[in-house]
Amino acid sequence: MKIKKILLNRVFASTLFISSPIVLISAGEANGKPDDKPTKPQEPKREIDKNFDKFKQLAEKKIKEAIGKAIDETISFLKTKVDKIGSLDKPDDKYYEKLEQKIHLLSLISYFKNNKQKIIEKPDEYGFPVRFPYVIANEKKYNVGIVKFNGKTYNNIKMGKDNKLNYSELINPEKGDLITIDSESDNFITEDRFKKELEKYTNELIIQAKRMVDADKDIPKIGKDIFLIDKEVNDPANPSLKVNGLIISSPVGFKTWSEYIINRIKPKFVEFDLKQNEQYIEEVHQNNAKKRPVAPVVIPPLVPKKDLDAIEIHDANEVPLEIPSLKPLISYKHLGKSMTELKNIFDSSSPDEKNKMFFFNNPINTRYKYFVKNLSISNVLNKTQLTATVQITDTAAQSDVSRNYAIDVEMSNNNSKNIQFLFENQIRIIRENFIKLYKSVGLDEKLNYPELGNNALMETMNAIVAGAVGVINKDKIVEKWSSINDKYKNHNIDFNEPNNKYVVQSSNEILNEILLALHESDINGKYYWNALADTYDYILNDKESGFKSHLESEESKKAIKEKFKELNLEVKYIDKLVDLLNFRILKFKSLSQKSSKWVNSLNLHKWFDEYISDSSIIKNKIDILSKLLDTKKPAKASKEEKELIDSYNEAVNTVSYTHLTLPTN
Questions:
Q1: Best CA proximity match to 605, nearest among 472, 480, 497, 506
Q2: Averaged over 24-39, what is the pLDDT?
Q3: Which of 206, 380, 410, 597 is most exposed by smallest CB count within 10 Å?
Q4: Rounded to an integer, what distance in angstroms lies between the CA atom of residue 336 and that of residue 330?
Q5: What sign has the CA pseudo-torsion 39, 44, 46, 47?
Q6: Are residues 363 and 510 in contact, defined by beta-carbon separation less than 8 angstroms?
Q7: What is the pLDDT of residues 381-411, one digit of tens each?
Q8: Whole-model pTM above 0.85?
Q9: Which helix (H) or strand (E) holds 523?
Q10: Beta carbons within 8 Å of 241's beta carbon, 6+ residues apart
Q11: Are 190 and 49 in contact (CB under 8 A)?
């Protein structure tokens, strides 16, 4: 399995993307600390476009033109379909079917021909309620939220402040439709972007209009939906004479054919408009979302940039829409309760108790936490549904960065309480194991990558997280996971002990399956587990940008020697620490090889523990070396001087009591 493919397709749905400016180290910044504190970059002031007041008129003009063109093309499309049916003056096995089609098509043609100008002038009244272009053309501040319509949920919907532009006139709460407002946003759309969005919307409108009328399920059935009614009519051959004839009734439940056609077209158009609205994401910014400061990147990419083409990392001041909208899973304690019971318990519970009612299958990308914020019960198409409003929170953000979405809670879960208890705790244990890996490089569960202070290490860890997320979503792992739980479902499981033997045993089996799947994976054509070892090697030994380049600089060596001499420190321990690091990295590479004895013996859990331990030791030594190589002289009795001496003493102790013996594969 190729993780590169996962990165390109699926991982973007599950990882944080970071974008950090690269700050190259100078001779006086070997430990990654600039001489002066970095100044906070000035963000360009965002303003409403100077031509914003012209957007409304432009939108009205383009929408009218598009609707007129859509009607013309739709009439032409319908006439072509009528011609294909032909005259119905001969016996045909599908006579009634063709007659029904022709009646429907001719009624549509009549509707569009007779009402064309009215539709252009008052599209709302004739089944074409345009909303999205007018929201971004009229509102300098708009609301952003969720719209549930016709059984489907649309996230990131931009809405106006009045009923005309907030979609409230288009939804029916009695059918389960609802609107939830999450935030307010300034409308910083540029004139160029507005024109592109308007062009996209109108082009799609023209295309989709034909599809809105081309639905077999909308064709009324003779004898069920429409009927032939006796009526005196003019004789076609002699209009002055009255004759007995038959006319086609309006569809059952509607006074006119126009009313019926509007009823069929309007919901489809609302869905079209909501989809166009949902797709517009680039200019959405919450007012309270502040740009997070990014740690300076002190060493250029640790892996050659050409080998990192699958990963594009950017910072964001909002939760990316690519982060998946996971289903809330009912905790074992509440499994089997009715929708009403769940809602009543939820509404009367404290925030902490509410969080315990549900869990989410998100053991890898721990930066994002999911919370159920609200439960509602609705009836959609005669089906009762429990809908949760879920909030995804970016735990690494310094300000409130979150995104809400609505999703139905799966009530028909066939899992027993045993399986649900196991599943919930397995996710927790897998999460704990991967957090150990993150901590080995200096991260915690927030996965705030800029804290690593190194562009390549950020990219490597992002790829490692991304690969693991992709693997646990693979069908093979999902099936294995389910199969493992089936083995334990009939055991007498102690619900009072979250780390009971069945939880631990099953979690280890699942973790082994995940590690084995990653063992069969790669990152950009290179073995998955080698990525971190290769990155550490690059940090230390790259001739252009690693520590080695700094150690070989005459200017740097002179400055370090002078600093050490003033503090009565011995420079030889730097060389010894470098030797130790090279040894440790070589050992780590040996452990990370695909032929590693731990991997081949399938004792992956033990192997993973050793992998984490080696990574932690190396990262610690790199941090020590970074402090020792700082060419800037610390002030007497300063915090920096104490940190330098502490690092030196740790280096002395480390190299004095380490025996360099490589393992055998």
A1: 506
A2: 37
A3: 410
A4: 9
A5: positive
A6: no
A7: 567 889 888 999 999 987 778 888 888 898 8
A8: no
A9: strand 522-523
A10: 234, 235
A11: yes
